[in-house]
Amino acid sequence: MANNAIQKAAAAQNQAAAQEPAKQSLNAAINSMLDRDGLRKRFDELLGKRTPQFMSSLVSLLNATPQLQEAFFKSPMTVIQSALKAATFDLPIDPNLGFAYIVPFKNKGTPEATFIMGYKGMQQLALRTGAYKTLNVIDIREGELKKYNRLTEDIEIEFIDDEIEREKTPILGYVGYFRLINGTEKTIYMSLSQIKAHEQKHRKGEYMGKGWRDDFEAMCAKTVMRRLIGKWGLMSINYQQADAQTVAAAEAIASGNFDDDDDADFEINPDADAAVPVDTDPADDAPDAQMTI
Question: What average pLDDT does this structure show over 240-245?
């Protein structure tokens, strides 16, 4: 037993020793690229004193994700550009936080990376405007939806009071709602079948993307949130109080004077071995949103 314990400890030490040079090599490769291409200055402009912490998060993410590490060595600029996009939005890239993700995928067999904004990231950009009084997306269980008027968006819901019983009840759909400080309101409802059809329509490849497989309910909520604030809402990169421009945009929405083109959104399937477009426009995740910087 003692010998087994010693052997396991030695194996763990050997593994850690083997990983250390790789980590140093990765750090050196990132630093070399940032200095060579003048990218460090751009990160400093965006993040200031938080740059070292952000770069440390990037290195940790690469070390924890072999597919992303492969993408860095094969297509390094796709990883750096994705990190820059997260820095532009001032969102952390730790996947456990749910604000933003740098996701590996294959583009015609070549490992690359792309930026995907998380559910919390979308909420964060919306709340930074200072224009929202209420913003939320919730699931609706069977029996709770009493009435929904697609034209006026009037909705009547009677929630199940017993939370334990409610958790046992199947989900019927999701409803999103916001109210701005100027009184503008918007409600949208998507049934579970509508959300599933949306996912299937926009998936890349034959199978459901990793995000949908890992946390289907969170992705459903994100889909509704994305449609709600991406099409009708307001988002801002910087923290600020609602200014005249933001209020004017809100009033334009309230009066119906806004672009109603429905740009198709999509989720990237990192498992798909096919040509997948890499976002280059930070607003792609919410194509119709009013952005203030």
Answer: 50
Q: How far apart are CA 201 and CA 193, in angstroms?
A: 12
Establish how many alpha carbons lie within 13 A of residue 194's alpha carbon, considering only the half-sphere containing its beta carbon.
12
Cα separations in angstroms, 13 against 26, 63, 257, 269 = 20, 17, 64, 36
Mean pLDDT estimate for the chain: 76
pTM for the full predicted model: 0.66
The b-or-e profile of 251-287 (16+ CB within 10 A means b, else e) is: eebeeeeeeeeeeebbbbbbbbeeebebbeebebbbb
Q: Does residue 219 carry a pLDDT above 50?
A: yes
Q: What are phi and psi of 161, to 5 degrees?
A: -70, -40
- pLDDT tens-digit series, residues 257-291: 443 333 333 333 333 332 222 232 323 333 333 33
Return d(Cα 287, Cα 266) in angstroms, integer.
11
Tens digits of per-residue pLDDT, 60-90?
A: 999 899 999 999 999 999 999 999 999 988 8
**When comparing pLDDT for 89 and 38, which is higher?**
89
Orientation of helix 2-36 relative to helix 51-64, angle to 10°: 130
Distance CA 5, CA 19 (A): 21
End-to-end CA distance of the chain: 62
Domain boundaries, the chain: 2-117, 120-292
